[in-house]
Amino acid sequence: MTKYAVIGVSESTGREILSALSEAGISSKNVYALEPRSALGNMVSYGEEDELDILGLDGFDFSKVDVAIFTTVKEVSKKYIPTAVKSCKVIDCSNAYFGDPDVPMIVDGLNDQNLSKAKKGIISVPSADVTQLLLPLKNINEEYGIKRIVVSVYTAASVYGKDGMDELFNQTRKIFMNDTLVDDQKVFKKQIAFNVIPQVGEFIGDETSAEWSFNSEVKQVLNPDVKVHANCAVIPAFIGCGQFINIECAKDIDVEDARNLMKKVPGVVVFDKHVDGGYVTINDVQGENDIYISRMRQDTSIENGISFWCVADNFRAGMARNVLSLAQKLVK
User: Fold this and answer.
1) Considering the entire predicted model, what is its pTM?
2) How far apart, in whole angstroms, are the C-alpha atoms of residue 41 and residue 78?
3) Closest by alpha carbon to 155, among 219, 71, 213?
4) Nearest 10 degrees: CA dihedral of 48, 51, 55, 61?
5) Residues contacting residue 121 through CB under 8 Å, at least 6 positions apart
6) How far is 270 from 239, CA to CA, in rounded Å?
7) Are the C-beta atoms of residues 71 and 94 closer than 8 Å to each other?
8) Which of 2, 7, 185, 248 has the CB geometry, 3.0–4.6 Å to 34, for a possible disulfide?
9) Is the separation of the CB atoms in 34 and 54 below 8 Å?
10) What CA–CA distance (Å, rounded) separates 103 from 114?
C-alpha cells in the first residue's frame, strides 16, 4: 500500500490534500501529517472520524513513505526536499524549483506525460488559480493553438491562508458592530471586507507576484510562446476563485466548438445558460472538485477569439485534486 507524507497541514491547502486522500479511501495508517515544528500532542482531522498526530519535520524518516507532498513556503521546501527526495518521490506546491529543467511543472490531464522528465524525483504543480485557468483549455489548445490569454482573476481571501480569512471575518464582524478596523489590517494593505483589492502578492516591478506567476507558469505548462496578461484582485470571499478569460487562437474558432471541446475534459463542467442565473458563481462551487465554465461568448474584438467565466474551489479543484492524481501516478 502506498504511503504518503503531507507537509504543511496547519494551512488550508495541506488540510484539503488530507481530505482528498481520505476521500480516495486511503487509510490513516498510510498517511503522515508534518509541520516544520510541531508541539507534542498536536493533531489534525483526517476524514470524518480519524485524526493524525502532527509530526515535526526535523528528523522525520522519509523512507517510511512513497510520496512526500510539500505545501509549505518556498524556504521550507528548499531546505527539506533535498533530504526527502533521497528516499521517496516529491511533489512541491511552493514553486521552489521553478525553472529547473529536471523538475517539470504538471497539471494532471494536461501535460502529465512530462512525469517522465522528473529526473530528480521531484515534480512541481502550478498555483491553484493557474491550474483552474489551464485545464479547461486543454482540448482547445490542441485543436486550435492558443496564441494569447488575457485573464482577470477574482480570488478569495484564502489566497493568503488562514490569516487572510481570519482578517476578512474579523473586519466584517467589526463593521456590523460599528467598531474600528485599526487593528485588523495586517494581512491586506487595504480594508478587505466589502471591498476589492487590486493586489495579490508583493509587487515585482509593475506586476504582483500572482500576475507574474500566471505569465511564467502558463508558459511553462502550456506553451513558452503563448502571450499572457493577468490582472489579479482579492475579493471579500473566503474560498474560491472566479476568472474572466479571453483567449486568441491561431485558427478560426467557433464558440460552440469550444464549448464541446471543454465538455470533454475530465474535471471540467460546462454550465452555460444565457438566462438570469444561468451561470455558476464562487459560492456555488465550494467543496466541489470540478472546474465550472459559464458565460461563453465569441470575442468579436479580435480574430479567432472567445471569452468565458470560470470558477472553482481553489483548494480542492485548483490544488488537491491535481496533487492527488499526480501522487497516484508517481508511484505507478
Assistant:
1) 0.93
2) 27
3) 213
4) -80
5) 85, 88, 89, 90
6) 21
7) yes
8) 7
9) yes
10) 9
Angle at 44 between CA 125 and CA 59, to 5 degrees: 70
Instruction: Please count the residues of the chain.
Output: 332
| Strand ranges (E), 183-226 | 203-204, 207-208
Structural contact between residues 26 and 54, judged by C-beta atoms closer than 8 angstroms? no
- Give me 155's grid cell: 480570488
Cell of 13: 491547502
pLDDT tens digits for the chain (332 residues)? 899 999 999 888 999 999 999 999 999 999 999 998 877 778 999 988 899 999 999 889 999 999 999 999 899 999 999 999 999 999 999 988 988 889 999 999 999 999 999 999 999 999 999 999 999 999 999 999 999 999 999 999 999 988 999 999 999 999 998 888 777 778 998 999 999 999 999 999 999 999 999 999 999 999 999 999 999 999 999 999 999 999 999 999 999 999 999 999 999 999 999 999 999 999 999 999 999 999 999 999 999 999 999 999 999 999 999 999 999 998 87
- Cβ 135 vs Cβ 116: under 8 Å: no
278 is written with which cell numbers?
444561468
* Beta strand 4-7 pairing with 67-70: parallel
Residue type, 224: P
Closest CA relative to residue 240, chosen from 12, 2, 4: 12
What is the rounded CA–CA span in Å between residue 138 and residue 261? 9
Domains of the chain (ranges, CATH numbers):
4-125+320-330 (3.40.50.720), 131-314 (3.30.360.10)
Give residue for cell 488550508: 12
Sign of CA dihedral 168, 174, 175, 179: negative
DSSP-based three-state secondary structure for 168: helix
- Residues paired with residue 144 on neighbouring β-strands, in sequence order: none
Residue 104 contacts residue 216 (beta carbons within 8 Å)? no
